[in-house]
Amino acid sequence: MWQERAWSRHEDREMIFRVRTSSSDRHWNGFEAVLYEASGGYSEQQFVRHNVSMQIGRPLLVTSRCNGETLRRLQIPGDVKIVPPGIPRVWETESATIKLSMYLSPALMLSAADAMNVNPDRIAIAPQLHVRDPRIEHIGWAVKAELESPAPIGRVYGDSLGLALAAHLLRGYGSVCPPGDDATLSRRRLARVLDYVRTNISSDLSLSELAKTAGLSPSHFKTLFKRTVGMPVHQYVIRQRVEFATELLQRSDTPLADIALQAGFSNQSHMARWMKRLTGGTPTTTRR
């Protein structure tokens, strides 16, 4: 879903979105763009990727809230917002408008950082509710033109625009985090990872997948996770699988083999082995 997560607290003023065009079928590398119309109203969004949105439609009054900051001002074409992943953003308008939303994956940000010889684990990008940035605006208009063109230049061009935007965000809006052996995952990053584990508990979760969710390299993520949670990543995932399976066993009559698959175990024996090791019981005794 291009909006990542979106919901409204006021059903009578829920913002309605209509996509004009998007890059969803263009297979850009770690970069996605959507040109859409938004009705007047209220919307709250939370992203799993870096989001850069640009005002395209006529000037209008917008109220934005993000990370404890509230800003109410007139937005004109070319005005930009920058929202890192995991941070809820609220915005409200009195009338309809047209926006361009651009999304940059953690992998693209890592690639840009490597090309710039920058340690991505030491860079943090803070939310920006209102930015007037000629470089971002230039990229935004170029992306819009590519989306609307009857003869688009192609994937290489889209990839280059995404990489240029990622590099500019790192250089222009990234602040260096102080080093330290006692560093841990921020609450925002940890919550994002734990939520991802719960949501995808039935999947074959990998270290690189979870590190990408946190926006960190696998090696650094593994170290920070253990330091923050007190156990390695793989042990935490196994414990969550056992807890999830235990809940299903106690509140349903689903066959044990099905519960094992729903909890992400390879089979019923795999589930029984880990349940015995961590809880001292078996699936059958747990169900009783």
Give a quick set of tags describing it.
288 residues; alpha+beta; 6-stranded antiparallel sheet; 5-stranded antiparallel sheet; 10 helices; 13 strands
Protein architecture, described:
The chain is α+β, with helices and mostly antiparallel strands. The protein is 42% helix and 24% strand. It has 10 helices and 13 strands. The strands form 3 sheets. A 6-stranded antiparallel β-sheet has the order 2-3-10-5-8-12. Strand 6 and strand 7 form a beta hairpin. Helix 4 packs across helix 5 and helix 7 crosses helix 9. It is elongated. About 2% of the residues have low confidence.
Q: Name the helix and strand elements from N-terminus to C-terminus, one letter apiece.
A: EEEEEEEEEEHEEHHEHHHHHHH
Q: Terminal Cα separation, in Å?
A: 41 Å
The oligomeric status of these chains comes to single chain
How are strands sequenced across the largest beta sheet?
2-3-10-5-8-12
Give the class from helix and strand content and strand pairing.
alpha+beta
**Rg calc:** 22 Å
Poorly predicted sequence stretches spanning 5 or more consecutive residues? 5-11
Tally of helical runs: 10
Helix content: 40-55%
